[in-house]
């Protein structure tokens, strides 16, 4: 699906986007300008992604969330005013989101994403799912991939966060590389060495590339029972398995682990860990006993980190510039480590 | 039973509500940081920034809207944060952190200081204040897609100044004046020209042909002769550029012909320069007017991204000279203009002058857009990089407040994952450097200079303030009499400024005790008298790498920490500032290369060298060596980068 580029950038846009145009170029900015994005979920992570995409200057951003604002969600997120309790979360976020950049069409949609017909998604160039169940994410990913819509998923659980992307089987992009030019030096027997001028060391060239992505379903259903997979386990981020546990919790309980029910939730998490890892043919030691302590609630700084990486991946994909991270990013806020890894068929 | 408040243990959550923290800077990182702090539960926050809001900030400094342009960043940031967190207790200061009001006592009010700065001078200063107050400091920086966070704790870690940082690249005078070979040389020349014509004239910013160019002669006597000859010719050397321009009423055509024809023809007489180089081609105003044809405007790029022809830039030169001339006249007698990249005629002037010179020297001309980047030292910036870094800052803050400072790390944000799949790379913090000229117990440096032609004023401004980061130095000569050379009290030692160091008996081997009472910092300066420093070099600090050339890979240990693009702490948008701006960062590259271990007593086995990239030039500047931390037996070596 080709993004329509409007060829004229207004002076207002040029002034406002100046510092980012100088980074990713005018073409990229134009493509962003022609893109509509759907963002599902306006909790901490969702708000960060919304901010990042609105500031980047996409054409439109639809905020989709059926939940209501609670006292807790006021503190969790910077778009919702403290007076908005009882309102729909997307609705409540709309005004401050729009203020971030009046040049972007920001909309709020209060429906449940499960109730949206297939054709709803087709109006977007990219879809970003936060706070969604595994089944829902798999379904939406499958649908969007068929229509060449870029799909992103992300969540934050306490100190941990992840991001997944499916940019389709054939995602084309460009990379800017510096032109390597060597200045010529002549042997001189009279006076100091001289260089020939005219060589501009800052010239670059654009290289076209393609990347291929697998579906979320396939990425989550990697087989760990064969020998090859087992040997790669040591280099595999443990967060991948943590993600499975947390998604299962979400499916079973219809919510994420909550500090108010810490004891019960912690026990359930450990149980799920045992079940999930056993089903994969792996030892439950893979996730140490204390893993439960660090995955409750959305930590604001972790939302900022994951939202930043996720936001930038959306920008890259829409602008078709720079190599996308393939296909997971895991952030461990305790260690400060952020890892990109691929799960899926070779 | 663990009591959680959100994700945090109750004790930690409580201490967050109680403690006071200071955020220095309310720009790209600052806005994101303030948001993260209040959402995490910090209640008492003070934020300081001397700058005002500009439209180019709005792509990332999300606490500001268009209607706030021109207002104080610190003030508006506070107001915006209160919108979503009315219970936060925020104090905003529209001021410079280097103001003596913010003394050690002020800093002691805080449990933690977090920098969100864009210039090295302020970073140096805050570093010293936090050392003096013994308060932990979280330092950070971003540039484009890259970013970095680190923690500084007195006695435990390196301070910001433990590792020498490369200073801003400068070019030799003869390159600027006689033999430019890159666009940047022409741009620097054009900025100098602006100052010579309309701004503050500076002896270090000459634009006329340099007859003392070392290339011109093997024989110093020849150079001498030529210099005298030109004086006798009564040409450029005797009359200042500004006086000459004034005498012609800033006539654009006369100016054009002098700079781009006459001076070039003069350069051509210095034939040694052109034996191995392509000779410059002088321009003639009238000839160019004949060539003038209407410029095709191509539709796809920004207006500023068009590259005009010689005729176009000649016209632009003429127009901008006229505009600047009248601006100068409007300001009255003895007025001076300050170059500002956001001032259209000033930017036009540099664009035109630089391009004309590039054309003369057979370089491809550049668009206003590109020239603005180079002339204005613009660092591209986006919201997401700042968002990530600000998130990391708060996570480090939580470790410090939990009493887990040994868990703190330096964390690098790369553009692409490294070979170990890491996009965010945590590294162990280094211990303080034993001979750091700031945080060592009795810091000392040795400076090479010529005591006979170094002014006291130059010692104060160029060496103590600019190079050694002091704000208000007091200098005593260790001559047994305790002679006071420089006093930070205004007016006290002003009479000394125009004298030479040797006038005070300072000679080879002299020692100066330098105090900055604001920074609670004492530095002993050993003087080495030297008469053959390189041309254009006023002093050298022994132990420093040379500034100009990119340092050879093997030569240097260099710390990659956020520094800043500006050497001064002036705000980007202040009317007095050289409008250079934004965060710059020296970060690790994406590649880790294994290499053989080197001779370094601090090193333990098993590490790799990392290449540094200068964010501005993109060149690998030096290799950095790091300490490998001993690991606990069962600990995953995942968060520590082992280096040879």
TrEMBL record, chain A:
Keywords noted in UniProt: Ligase, Nucleus, Ubl conjugation pathway
Keyword match ATP-binding: no
Domain of life: Eukaryota
Entry annotated with the keyword Ligase: yes
InterPro entries: ThiF/MoeB/HesA, ThiF_NAD_FAD-bd, Ubiquitin-activating_enz, UBQ/SUMO-activ_enz_E1-like
Region called Disordered, residue ranges: 180-202
Major localization class: nucleus
Pathway(s): Protein modification; protein sumoylation
Skewed-composition ranges (Basic and acidic residues): 180-201
Ranges for domain THIF-type NAD/FAD binding fold: 17-337
Molecular function (Gene Ontology), one example: SUMO activating enzyme activity
TM stretches of this protein: none
SUPFAM superfamilies: Activating enzymes of the ubiquitin-like proteins (SSF69572)
Protein location: Nucleus
GO cellular component term, pick one: SUMO activating enzyme complex
Gene Ontology terms describing biological process: protein sumoylation
Similarity annotation: Belongs to the ubiquitin-activating E1 family.
Subunit structure, as described in the record: Heterodimer of SAE1 and UBA2/SAE2. The heterodimer corresponds to the two domains that are encoded on a single polypeptide chain in ubiquitin-activating enzyme E1. Interacts with UBE2I.
Protein name in UniProt: SUMO-activating enzyme subunit 1
Organism field: Oncorhynchus kisutch (Coho salmon)
Gene: SAE1
